[in-house]
Amino acid sequence: MAQNKALLEVKDLSVRFARRDGAPVDAVQRVSFSLDKGKTLGIVGESGSGKSQTVMALLGLLAKNGKVSGEALYNDTNLLTMNDAALNRIRGDRIGMIFQDPMTSLNPFLTIERQMTETLQLHRKLSRREAKQRAIETLERVRIPDAARRIGMYPHEFSGGMRQRVMIAMALLSEPEILIADEPTTALDVTVQAQIIELLRELNRERGTAIILITHDMGVVAGLCDDVMVMYAGQTVEQAPAQQLFAAPTHPYTIGLLNALPRLTDDDDQPLQTIPGNPPLPGMATQGCAFAPRCTYAEERCRTTRPALEPTEGEAHALRACHRPVQAIAEVL
Amino acid sequence: MPPVSLTVVDAPPSRSPLATAARRFVRNRAAFVALLLLVVIMLACFVGPLLSSNNAIDSDWSAISLAPTFDNMHWFGTDELGRDLLVRTLVGGRVSLEVGLLGTLVSGLIGVAWGATAGYLGGRVDAVMMRIVDMMYAIPYMLIAILMMTLFGRAFYLVVLTISAFSWLDMARVVRGQTLSLRSREFIDAAKAIGVDSRSIITRHIVPNLIGVVVVYATVTVPGIVLTESVLSFLGLGVQEPMTSWGVLIQDGAQKLESTPWLLLCPALMLCATLYAVSFVGDGLRDALDPKDR
User: Fold this and answer.
1) Contact B195 A119 (CB under 8 A)
2) For an interface test with A, which of B9, B185, B187, B286 has the most A Cβ atoms less than 10 Å from its Cβ?
3) How many structural domains compose chain B?
4) Stretch A137-157: mean pLDDT, rounded?
5) How many CB atoms lie within 10 A of CB A82?
6) Which residues of chain B lie closer than 8 angstroms to A154, CB-CB?
7) What is the least distance, in Å, from the CA of B109 to any CA of chain A?
8) B131 contacts chain A (CB < 8 A)
9) Which residue has the higher pLDDT, A187 or A94?
10) ipTM of the complex
11) What is the pLDDT of residues B231-290, one digit of tens each?
């Protein structure tokens, strides 16, 4: 890592929301990761695990009562301490973002052309005509048929999948080095999901765009990501190369997530596997491991002291936060 | 079975947003007729009096308090000084239309800019800006009007200025409320994520989405302003005899309702027709400018 510097290096990122009544909420706690050029990182976790807030913090999009600490180095500059003007030069230009719901992420009153050319006129100082040409090319790249005509249409004239393509095209206009996709397929139906994932994979392969993919869908991660970070209640619980994580998950929560995936080979009458219980409510301070109350492997110290995120025994590039040794968990499996 | 072609054949050609809006406005019968009516009223007010053999000031001593008639060209009748009411209504319409439309325009511009800025920026800026609005509400506008007129003399632009200076307050509040709900919409986050600065977000993303409320609210503002002008005139702060406005004519007519009812009816009908036309045009505009409404 020393000679080959990471594209984005996030260290100890924490996000805390102040509340008018009661204790502040720690949405993200000391999350660290690094993203190399052309790599893909999946951030996985249930709703409310802090995965979205992590990337929102990177782009300065937190709600007004949110405070962020730690550092996120991009080209030796810390994104977290930048002012809006400086950040505006990076977001949309060097770092693109795709939002979860393509139905609401496009301005209903502006044509696709105006929304797309905005980025280019802003960052690249292109003329309107050049910007339009570029926008049409980008739309064609995400395979929107008849792009030259459709660019003059309004968002409501597109289907959900098409809108998500438009969103991706918007994020790609200025050929960013990093693309952040916040649950890009959640609001879409399954066949369209596959197309979008395929599109992201192509971008990554052909253009070398690094991707941070946020999802709660393990299947999506398996299809796209090099590395995976599993988050629970605002903390990283396991971090490993995707292949390794899927072949040999070492954290009880990861195991639970993987088991919760229904398989076609399962018996019809076999109940769906779930993780018992619910994630802790935000703002609830936990003394021990946040997952302990739902964990089948938990023992006394899991409830009293919080496990640190440490290198997994015997694995070079993996981290886990669990008191129980890997063997103990593997045995019960 | 014939081969199925996947290309869309009967898709409408893509037009510019403005052309689309204009086309849809014309297709809306009620709004289009209302617009024509408004144009006719305006033309009548500004050109009509020049074509008439009567004028607004001179008395016709052979026709005092004459009921509407087609003889003598006094179609709307005359008042107790023998002045032709039709010409006076049209001349008065100049003032009322100018004050109403100009005042609404100015108050709309200030109100939208103020409300959208306060609503979008939020926090302390919002608090300060909206407290200023609250403070302005507390100032009696009549007092300011009297001060302005005594200090600077009676002038038409002062009337417009004074009225506009107070009529944007409601607009600002309505716009701010709407902006607060727009601000949390995802497409605003998406705009931020592509590096759009606050000013452009307000002008390019917030304001177009406000058009519906603004247009509807503006149509409500027009009659309010026309009436405010008549109150000012009644107190001797607006236009003065022998000049007139619809507000003044209606005020006059109301006092002579039993003896000469046409003095109230004729200008009141003109005002009603104008206000109806304005609200239909406003409604049509809102529909035409909303891209989702096809």
Assistant:
1) yes
2) B187
3) 1
4) 88
5) 17
6) 291-292
7) 19
8) no
9) A94
10) 0.76
11) 777 777 777 777 788 877 887 777 887 777 777 888 888 888 888 888 888 888 888 877
Cβ neighbours of B209 in A, within 8 Å: 107-109
List of residues 6+ apart from A15 with CB closer than 8 A: A26, A27, A28, A50, A53, A54, A57, A62, A66, A67, A68, A234
Please give the residue range of the domain that contains residue B126.
Answer: 79-275
| Residue A289 belongs to some domain of the structure | yes
Please give the tally of structural domains in chain A: 1
Task: Give me the domain span that covers residue A320.
Answer: 249-264+273-333
**Mean pLDDT, range A50-77, rounded to an integer:** 88
In a domain, B4, yes or no: no
ω into residue B242 within 30 of 0, thus cis?
A: yes
CB atoms within 10 A of CB A236: 25
Q: How far is A101 from chain B (nearest CA, A)?
A: 8
- Cβ–Cβ below 8 Å for B197 and A152: no
Q: What is the CATH number of the domain that holds B163?
A: 1.10.3720.10
Rounded Cα–Cα distance for residues A114 and B219 (Å): 29
Does any domain span residue A330? yes
Hey, what's the torsion of the CAs at A304, A278, A223, A75, to 10 degrees? -60
The answer to whether residue B67 sits within a structural domain is no
Mean pLDDT over residues B196-215, rounded?
86
- Is A171–B205 a contact, with Cβ atoms under 8 angstroms apart? no
- Give the closest residue to A198 by CA, choosing from A220, A180, A228: A220
Q: How far is A221 from chain B (nearest CA, A)?
A: 23
Nearest-Cα distance to chain B for A58, in Å, is 10
Q: How confident is the model over A244-256, as pLDDT tens digits? A: 888 888 899 998 8
